[in-house]
Amino acid sequence: MRLSEKRGNMLHGILLIALFSCAAFYIGDFPFFKKLSFSPLIIGIILGMLYANSLRNRLPETWVPGILFSSKQLLRLGIILYGFRLTFQNIVEVGGPAILIDAIVVLITIVGGVGIGRLLKMDKDVALLTSVGSGICGAAAILGAEATIKTKPYKTAVAVSTVVIFGTVSMFLYPVLYRNGIVDLNPEQMGIYTGATLHEVAHVVGAGNAMGKEISDVAIIVKMIRVILLVPALLVISFLMAKGAAQQAEKGSRRITIPWFAVGFLVVIGFNSFDLLPQGIVDFINNLDTFLLTMAMTALGAETSIEKFKKAGAKPFILALVLYGWLLAGGYLLVKYVVPVLM
User: Any stretches that span the bilayer, and where are they (predicted)?
Assistant: First the structure.
């Protein structure tokens, strides 16, 4: 097959995913999905999975490289551009106590999740992805971890589904708990609690807006700091994977695969902190980035069938439920009793 023909076939796969992604944006504007705060990323992976379990077998195999390109290369570019949503000034604004709470939540969730996964005798990749998604920033974190450990697409889809379920429940639950005084927190503490424990950025925005601007502003900044923690988390994961591979090899040397897209993400945050670009350009980049990440999620969904979900079993959802309980109760105790001491 000629090079030009291969490129044409790859382009067909990319255009297919782009078409589904456009549909995800269109569907995301429906009032029902807006009320649920379902981002195009989530809708995209659902559309991809629907396609995978219906018309997928009719897709020419020559188009598959385009789908894989969308789930790999476009994913990395999307993670890098995600940095335009953040600045280092955000960290200064929220203060040390919230940063410490974020760090504790992320560390315990990921380490604890991996440990529980071992007790459940789960697939280690699924356990890690589920833990990273619960601990940091939902689907975006899972995509970042997937690009680092290079696992199978269906495992990523399973982890994303757990985040969607429990994150959506939290988005409706937190305002109810706050309004009825079940969680005895002041507005600033509730903002920290929301940002430090909810899964997706969209979930934080939805829950925060339901409780008022004073809570929402703090919650979003705290959540964005968790997003920044994705970089050191990926570096540590990469290091531990390289160390484990070296120990298994008889004469292998330890080689760390640095996730350069994560470093690029951090560099972009630094650049954005100088406020050099007009807001209109930044908004355009953020919209483009959302589309790229939606394409990546859709492509992952297109590689995920019901049979693969059955293969994963119920254990990922059990793990996600345990982690959800920790975020709900442990996060509250941290914010209620640790933050006042630090402030």
Answer: 12-30, 36-53, 98-119, 126-145, 157-178, 224-246, 258-278, 314-335
Burial 3-12 (b: 16+ CB within 10 A, else e): eeeeeebbeb
- The per-residue pLDDT of the chain, averaged, comes to 83
End-to-end CA distance of the chain: 66
Count the residues in the chain: 343
CA angle 147, 148, 149 (to 5 degrees): 100
Mean pLDDT of 265-294: 92
96: enclosing H helix or E strand: helix 96-119
The half-sphere exposure of 6 on its side-chain side, counting CA atoms within 13 A, is 5
**Residues 128/142, Cβ–Cβ less than 8 Å:** no
Cβ-Cβ contacts under 8 Å for 101 (sequence gap 6 or more): 192, 196, 222, 331, 334, 335, 338, 339
Copy the structure tokens of residue 58.
Answer: 């009719």
If we measure between CA atoms, which residue out of 139, 326, 321, 99 comes closest to residue 223? 99
Q: Residue 252's pLDDT band (boundaries 50, 70, 90)?
A: very low
Domain ranges of the chain: 3-338
Give tens-digit pLDDT for 93-121: 777 788 889 999 999 999 999 999 999 99
